[in-house]
Amino acid sequence: MIGIIAFIFVFGLLVTVHEFGHLYFAKRAGIMCPEFAIGMGPKIFSYKKNETLYTIRMLPVGGYVMMAGSGMEQNPLTAGQTVSIKRNTAGEVTHVILDDQHQFRQIEQLEVEDSDFEDGLFIEGIDSYTNERVRYTLADEAYFVREGDLVQIAPRHRQFKNKKPWPKFLTLFAGPLFNFLLALVIFIGLAFVSGTPTDKPIIGEILKDSPADKAGLVMKDKVLEIDGQKIDKFEDMGPHLKDGETHEFLIERDGQKLTKSVTPKKMEYREKTKTLKKYAIGVNPMMTHDNFLAPFKYGFFKTIEMMSLIFMLVGQLFSSIFTGHFSFDMLNGPVGIYKNTEKVASLGILSLLSWAGMLSVNLGIMNLLPIPALDGGRILFVIYEAIFRKPVNKKAEVVIITAGAVFLFFVMIMVTWNDIQRYFFN
């Protein structure tokens, strides 16, 4: 149960912040946003404020901001369908009525032949009373009436596609940007709670059953020398642990000098296509609260460190594809993220928040990859428009984005199946 709650918390936080970034900049640009959704599938909660419907959906696999003119809308009318319309004194359509839950007066019925609620903003068909073919334009403020609600039809100047490249870019980039800002806030907050690591060679947390633990080192021990070599900073210890041999640590504890024999443990890790090794004793630096500004500095550099690490991992991923060493074990889908979140949650709320910060950076970077259907792929279309002063051909854009969505769906299915086999059948 703790794992499920932790996963919902982390997933909800990351997706909400990401989509809120899109929503905030879209609204600042004057883009109409009919829906802000967390999750996919059937609605389990909805709340409408102004022109935006805020929903929580059943499947925790993403979220979206539906922006007018972004290609996510579907025309609810089909040829041959009979609908009711209401017009103003200028003859413009103000309401397209798709249900009978509202009592409108002076309405007309129309058998639809053609309609466009995005570019042409018109509805055309046969008047049910006169049997004449008519064509009406939409008023600047027009609505669909369906499911007992009014859904505004976006005029051209409030559609995403009709905005200039810069507002489009900001709207698309804002999602990943807000993920990076969330990570920054999390890491700064953790630093205020737990302190920031000192650069002095003072031992802080010691991992249980680690070489340092077995050798009798304790928290607040100050390392003075290793094998007779002076140690000035915590990071100076690493280069002295070059092999698995026993090293003599001269430490200071409560004003007394002691000697401890420590045998480092070999740790292996992969970098690109090579397996590298290092030796560690299982200690972390001492955490302090001495400097008010230190948490801000720590949070900034921790975020940059996470970004660099994930960029490196993404580079290794693409490198493995070209070299033929790719495996779906290199990826994690919702199932894998859930299982890892469950493990981290068992370590406490601070570990879970740190994990959320790392995932937030990961989500931001992955969404910036130049893959159609992701923010990065759509940003490329905006850059093309800014350079050539014209948008990408609409049909070509739809084909490319559809292909990208199919590719991502296939990858998601394969990764999820691989996660299920790895975590439940091994």
A few lines on this structure:
α1 runs antiparallel to α2, α1 (2-28) crosses α7 and α2 crosses α8 (375-388). The chain is 40% helix and 28% strand.
Can you tell me about this structure?
One of its GO terms (cellular component) is membrane. The chain crosses the membrane at residues 169-193, 306-328, 348-369, 398-417. It comes from Macrococcus brunensis. This is Zinc metalloprotease. The chain has 9 helices and 18 strands. The longest helix has 31 residues, at 394-424. α2 (165-194) packs across α5 and α2 (165-194) packs antiparallel against α7 (349-367). The strands form 6 sheets. The protein has a 5-stranded mixed β-barrel. By secondary structure, the chain is of the alpha+beta class.
Q: How would a crystallographer describe the biggest sheet?
A: 5 strands, mixed, barrel
Summarize the helix and strand pattern as letters. Answer: HEEEEEEEEHEEHEEHEEEEEEHHHHH
Q: Considering DSSP H and I runs of 4 or more, what fraction of the residues is helical? A: 40-55%
Distance between the termini: 22 Å
Number of domains: 3
Give the overall average pLDDT: 88
Number of helices: 9
Family: Belongs to the peptidase M50B family.
EC number: 3.4.24.-
InterPro entries: PDZ (IPR001478), PDZ_sf (IPR036034), Pept_M50_Zn (IPR004387), Peptidase_M50 (IPR008915)
GO cellular component, one term: membrane
Attribute tags:
five-stranded mixed beta barrel, 426 residues, alpha+beta, Pdz3 Domain, single chain, elongated, 9 helices, 3 domains, zinc, four-stranded antiparallel sheet
